[in-house]
Write a structure and sequence with these properties.
Number of helices: 3
Radius of gyration: 13 Å
Structural class: mainly alpha
Shape: elongated
Largest sheet: none
């Protein structure tokens, strides 16, 4: 196994915290006061996740 693949797998897994408002503390900090819906957070987080997935080496 390449030494590059393990850190990339960890980074990819960590990026999934953008998919939901409960994934990370700062997501929750803007979720309530910003009056965002769960779907709003998922839409914006999905674009970030797809962007990262397209850049990850296969």
């Amino acid at each position: 196994m390449s030494t590059f693949l393990l850190p990339m797998a960890v980074l990819f897994a960590a990026s999934h915290s953008f998919l939901t408002p409960i994934g990370y503390q700062t997501n929750l900090m803007v979720f309530g006061p910003g009056r965002y819906s769960f779907l709003d957070m998922t839409r914006s987080g999905l674009s970030l996740t797809v962007s990262l997935a397209s850049r990850c080496p296969g």
